[in-house]
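hiii so my PI (J.) wants the whole complex modelled not just the main chain, which honestly fair. so below is everything: four entries, each one labled with what it is. i double checked the lines twice but i was tired so who knows lol
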Amino acid sequence: METHRIRPEHNLVPVNNKFLKKIFRIIYYSDTPGGKIFDIILLILIVISTMVIMLETVPAIDILYHRVFFYTEAAITTIFTIEYLLRILSVKNKEDYILSPLGLLDVLSLVPFYLGMVYPDLHYFMIFRMLRLLRIFRIFNLADYMNDGHYIVSALKESSRKIYVFLLFMIIFITIIGAAMHVVEGGSEGFTSIPQSIYWAVVTITTVGYGDATPSTAIGKFLSILVMLAGYSIIAVPTGIVTARFREQARSCKACPRCQTDNDLDAVYCKKCGEKFVS
Amino acid sequence: METHRIRPEHNLVPVNNKFLKKIFRIIYYSDTPGGKIFDIILLILIVISTMVIMLETVPAIDILYHRVFFYTEAAITTIFTIEYLLRILSVKNKEDYILSPLGLLDVLSLVPFYLGMVYPDLHYFMIFRMLRLLRIFRIFNLADYMNDGHYIVSALKESSRKIYVFLLFMIIFITIIGAAMHVVEGGSEGFTSIPQSIYWAVVTITTVGYGDATPSTAIGKFLSILVMLAGYSIIAVPTGIVTARFREQARSCKACPRCQTDNDLDAVYCKKCGEKFVS
Amino acid sequence: METHRIRPEHNLVPVNNKFLKKIFRIIYYSDTPGGKIFDIILLILIVISTMVIMLETVPAIDILYHRVFFYTEAAITTIFTIEYLLRILSVKNKEDYILSPLGLLDVLSLVPFYLGMVYPDLHYFMIFRMLRLLRIFRIFNLADYMNDGHYIVSALKESSRKIYVFLLFMIIFITIIGAAMHVVEGGSEGFTSIPQSIYWAVVTITTVGYGDATPSTAIGKFLSILVMLAGYSIIAVPTGIVTARFREQARSCKACPRCQTDNDLDAVYCKKCGEKFVS
Amino acid sequence: METHRIRPEHNLVPVNNKFLKKIFRIIYYSDTPGGKIFDIILLILIVISTMVIMLETVPAIDILYHRVFFYTEAAITTIFTIEYLLRILSVKNKEDYILSPLGLLDVLSLVPFYLGMVYPDLHYFMIFRMLRLLRIFRIFNLADYMNDGHYIVSALKESSRKIYVFLLFMIIFITIIGAAMHVVEGGSEGFTSIPQSIYWAVVTITTVGYGDATPSTAIGKFLSILVMLAGYSIIAVPTGIVTARFREQARSCKACPRCQTDNDLDAVYCKKCGEKFVS
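here's the output for the full assembly
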């Protein structure tokens, strides 16, 4: 069930044509030699493509290799387009694929190139092509890796309510501090408005500290000290929340054979249904 | 008992008038459709009001919408004033409301606007209006959220003694380091006085590192390295204190009445002796 | 035993004189009304004295109150001198007091003032007077607070071996990175020598990031990214070490009535001597 | 078995010559007085050598002591060369030593000096000599320390899969943020290309915050705030992963042979059933 959410292709079925069935297996699965090679080539193309998009923005490099870059992009996009068409052709329940998260990602990685030829600014959206790297989880039959990703996400999700409460307090605190600093440091460069001061407050409380805005008055410096110490102290709070959640997840690791509830390793009776464990 | 501290309105009783009783239910509770709508409108008004206060301080925007901003503020403040009067009118034990934390917050969100018309500087205090967002906990019947907020606060409070000890050591350490750096880096810009050097020490030890004051002598740089490593290391201490507290709170939650074993809060049967819990 | 180390005054005995016995009780203990008042006055004097030392270094303030500051310092030092003499006079085993940590601290807070009159530079050492604040633990009968301080220190001490290993790896890593950056960024301002580059490496790895030295070459920036990610990742290591220690300390909290070994809360038999616990 | 991996010299055997056998014992072991003295001298030479390499790069110092530095380096390298030859001579299975990690390290600490005389730039590689400090673990019979190093490494290794997943997400996130900031802040100094913006993203997300590149547009600042808050929040994730691993390692250490309860490593009796452990 959970795997379905992560591997949406699992509910996809091939069309009833021998050749396309083979294609389907190669493209959607990685349990055949052909499928593995296909996936690895895809992976390499994504990495190359991302590199090219990045290097194109460096003027000194772009001047030398502009043409190489363009043709590489064109070639990779063509391959991706063919791949996309094959994916659609070889699947029976086409809508299920097209509207699946990975399916939408596949289009998203194509469109910007074609649009970029008309509106150059949209060209940058090609970077979203990188999200296809998430397919990496499917290659190398990494079911375990997927569980780990799931593990991290679920640990964050289950403690999300505590994190919301924490964020609300943070937002209120940061806004009030921002307003206070705007009043105190009104004249200084980085505190000309409340949003500007809020930017400073975030820079400070997250301990990033660019230094593009720093307090110049004595009161401002004193307030800053309090904000920094606050930031330094509350860094513990999200850590504590997430860590506690990790701990809990790691702890309850024995499933009751009757009701499937997670029990502590040292439990003798299931805490939910009272079933006695056979050790 | 604890809920009383968080929801002070719970001990409030409506006046003996049919219409005001209805108002009371809408304003103070969110369990009726009217009460929910009222709360959501309040929430939206608070957010709009905060936005306006913030944007007013951005000259480029204020110039264009100064009038819109002023009238929005005036309108919202008027609504809040009417709301406040209705709150007072509809409650029987008026003093209990007026002197409750949320009651005082309600006045605090009104007064700065009126005072700001006489003393423009006090206008900024309107930002405290934002604290009314804490009412968010009451809307969407978020009893659970409240517990989480309570959970975080109590985790901080119960380990507060350890945090005091930690802070005392920090203050002594920072002051002595500040004095030392003032002596060593006397001539440099950011170390002209001990308070200035203390500001630098806090910026450094919290790993914020603005860079508005940096050591220039070799000895100063060496001392800085020690301070940075100290800051980097002791970041673990508050984390450890708070995390340990979270862990304890999460762990020892329900003792089995028969065998005294600590069980998870959601346990139905004792994990050791199989005793069924009476809930 | 442990308390002796923290409260060295406990092994001190008063001299055999009725008046000095009273003085002894007031100075060394805080369980009488007189002792409490004495301690609080001491506390206030230390804070005032520290403030004065700090403010003296701010030229704008010193110019106005130079005289006030000097006389305050002189007065407080005189009081501390009298206190010190009374401490020596009223105690029988004088050496035990004079050579105790707190005893040495008491002299250290006096000497710099007198030396400062001859060698003005030594005047700054008066800041060590602040260490007398550690006496704060004795006031308000804060036996618990002392335990907490002890708790933090012992948690750090018991995991110190792991921290040494960690530090050795850090030092090797930072030095090699420093040398590499010196080679790569040789020309840039902040990397003129290896020690300079090591300073940069510490600033970076501890996530302080002043910005007084930043890489300018592409390779330098790439190396920096690796260093930053390393610093960001290994911040978890000391946290993990200390947190694990806290956890262990918090966990073993039931002493065996026979052998005094700390046992887990859920233990039924003592893990050392096998004694069955009566619950 | 595990010690073999850390102490590769254990599988080395001396040659069949009385004098070289003695040399072998002194060089490879530290359980004799001679061996201990040898190890300590080695340690001191490594530290001196590292210091010299570092100070040579400081022009002000190098000008004064250039000759002293060169002769010190030459002398120490000569000693290391003789030591290396003796190591080879005294060991029977010479290949096992030469190709062992520590053996390769020993050559690596010699070669740069000789190469540096021909190609001065390679001289800097002498800093790798510092890695010989890892031999410190062998001196002072620090078997325990080795375990601690092993403990940290294994904690990192066993949670490495989670860390890989985490890093993949980070890389994707940082690249997309970098591209977005390049589009938004195109004109600004620190965002001239995507790699440049990625450098900024890493500086920001790791909370280093040099300030050599800072957003100047309103949208850029807003995006930065999100990135900073993300960095501040996810700092908890690696901490959580590693901490959870530490905890697990520390906790489930010895299962009772009778009742399978997890007991502490130092338990003599099972805490649940009282079974005595055979050690």
